[in-house]
Design brief:
about 550 residues, alpha+beta, 4 domains, 4-stranded mixed β-sheet, 12 helices, membrane, DnaJ_C, chaperone, metal-binding, ATP binding
Length: about 550
């Protein structure tokens, strides 16, 4: 057959649901004669016959669809026409990427013909498009195959005020406690200062995020109010723990994954003398502390009578939003007025008679404080677990802080004792013997040799007479003595005896006075009077200063 007479090889003409050029569809409308069936017409400017017939076949297919749509009712598909079968939505071979699939969709949308088949079947590999490896977008009329958008609740996301701590740990706001622990374990080992010394700030942020998110109450407050709510003390503990403490509790606490909850520490000052620190002493201290009520065992009332506060939902804090301007709000946290910050409440009828619902009672506790030799001013003595008791909390510690009183003779500097000793001029020149009473009531005798001159401010020391060393009381520091020479008062020696004294002392320095020198008189100096005079002169200079810019006008 000549090339110009060959039938067009149009792929679209072989697609199911389309009509070929040689066999146009029969008219299904009884009121429409075959003469009304659209015919294929030759258009001007057509391409060569081989390619022009392909375009004609496409136009014929589209016109045939329009003619089918104009019919009122049809009993079935045209003769020789195969009805496209609806594929199974679960069939992985379906798609909408090919042009033939899009044309089939247009045909089903335009035509009102309903297939008589009741059970949709998936396309078989014998389909022309499927045989070529193509795919069709078979629509069921209910869904276009696109995934429906899910809400945040369907995805499991949790609505929170901010996600900074979650982002630091790399978890979602809906993460479980186990996921948070797993994330912290991985990041803490990665950014530990021993492994990465330059990532100290990163390690600190990771520890802060875990401390908040691992505590259910703190996490609830953070989800509602963000980091600002935590800093304002909504959790009852506005300051963060040490990152290393959190790390040690996590990895070295016998598998304990959460921070140990303890009561507050109680700090007391204990006044001691320098003699007490030198010799050591034991003192008794009476304290008032809270203890768990023995009658209700820390419940506060009958069993089952404690319920979560409905106003604050067990948090003990209330969050109020206050509008302070256009588009500006302020978040304020206050203690819950219903439960007084406890997070729970008890019916007054069911409260314990012994503690009145407080769960604790006040008792007097006497502790013995052992002050050891060599302890210092401000040193702390710890009594573990002797603090106030609270339900569901380990008791805190009692911390005793030593407060040293001033001593009349000695001053302490580390392990050394410093004292000042006054001596007369004669003692400084001719020698002396002095006694010193130590802090343990011993008496020391010191002396200077005859002819040895002691100057004003000279320092001398006595070894092994200082303060004992803490935990090593047999070792002691030195005792340092600063000498202050006391000179005689005025007119202590008559004028007749002064030449005799001068003859005994080193000769005076002679000064040659000339006419160009000015002779002045020495006066007694009073520091207080001199300071007052300087202030008065400064005040007078301010009063005499110029006052420019003021003019007076007289009539």
């Amino acid at each position: 057959m000549p090339r110009g007479n060959q039938p067009p090889q149009d792929l679209d003409a072989t697609t199911e649901g389309s009509h070929s050029l040689q066999h146009p569809p029969k008219c299904n409308n009884p009121r429409q004669t075959p003469e009304h069936t659209p015919a294929v017409t030759e258009q001007k400017g057509a391409t060569p016959r081989g390619r022009g017939r392909v375009g004609s076949a496409r136009r014929l297919t589209f016109q045939s669809k329009l003619s089918s749509a104009q019919g009122s009712r049809t009993r079935g598909p045209p003769a020789g026409h195969r009805i496209p079968e609806r594929p199974n939505p679960a069939d992985p071979r379906k798609g909408k990427g090919t042009a033939s699939g899009r044309r089939d969709n247009r045909q089903r949308t335009t035509s009102t013909t309903k297939p008589e088949t009741s059970t949709p079947k998936p396309p078989t590999p014998e389909h022309p498009n499927m045989a070529r490896g193509g795919s069709q977008n078979w629509s069921s009329g209910e869904s276009d195959g696109q995934p429906e958008e899910q809400t945040s609740e369907e995805n499991g996301d949790k609505m929170v005020k901010e996600t900074q701590y979650y982002d630091i740990l790399g978890v979602k706001p809906s993460a479980s406690p186990e996921e948070i622990k797993k994330a912290y374990r991985k990041l803490a080992l990665k950014y530990h200062p021993d492994k990465n010394p330059d990532e100290g700030e990163k390690f600190k942020l990771i520890s802060q995020a875990y401390e908040v998110l691992s505590d259910p109450k703190k996490r609830d407050i953070y989800d509602q109010g963000g980091e600002q709510a935590i800093k304002e003390g909504g959790s009852g503990s506005p300051s963060f723990s040490s990152p290393m403490d959190i790390f040690d509790m996590f990895f070295g606490g016998g598998g304990r994954m959460t921070r140990e909850r303890r009561g507050k520490n109680v700090v007391h000052q204990l006044s001691v003398t320098l003699e007490d620190l030198y010799n050591g002493i034991t003192k008794k201290l009476a304290l008032q502390k809270n203890v768990i009520c023995e009658k209700c065992e820390g419940i506060g009332g009958k069993k089952g009578s404690v319920e979560k506060c409905p106003l604050c939902k067990g948090r003990g804090m209330q969050v109020h939003i206050q509008h302070i301007g256009p588009g500006m709000v302020q978040q304020i946290q206050t203690v819950c007025i219903e439960c007084k910050g406890q997070g729970e409440r008890i019916n007054p009828k069911d409260r314990c008679e012994n503690c009145s619902g407080a769960k604790v009672t006040r008792e007097k506790k006497i502790i013995e404080v052992h002050v050891e030799k060599g302890m210092k001013d401000g040193q702390k003595i710890l009594f573990h677990g002797e603090g106030d008791q609270e339900p569901e909390l380990d008791p805190g510690d009692v911390i005793i802080v030593l407060d040293q009183k001033d001593h009349s003779v000695f001053q302490r500097r580390g392990q050394d004792l410093i004292m000042k000793m006054k001596i007369q001029l004669s003692e400084a020149l001719c020698g002396f013997k002095k006694t010193i009473k130590t802090l343990d009531d011993r008496v020391l005798v010191i002396s200077s040799k005859s002819g040895e001159v002691i100057k004003h401010g000279d320092l001398k020391c006595i070894r092994d007479e200082g303060m004992p060393v803490y935990k090593a009381p047999l070792e002691k520091g030195v005792m340092i003595i600063q000498f202050l020479v006391v000179f005689p008062e005025k007119q202590w020696l008559s004028q007749e005896k002064l030449p005799q004294l001068e003859a005994l002392l080193p000769p005076r320095q002679k000064v040659r006075i000339t006419d160009d020198m000015d002779q002045v008189e020495l006066k007694e100096f009073n520091p207080n009077e001199q300071s007052w005079r300087q202030h008065r002169e400064a005040y007078e200079e301010d009063d005499e200063g110029p006052r420019a810019g003021v003019q007076c006008q007289t009539a």
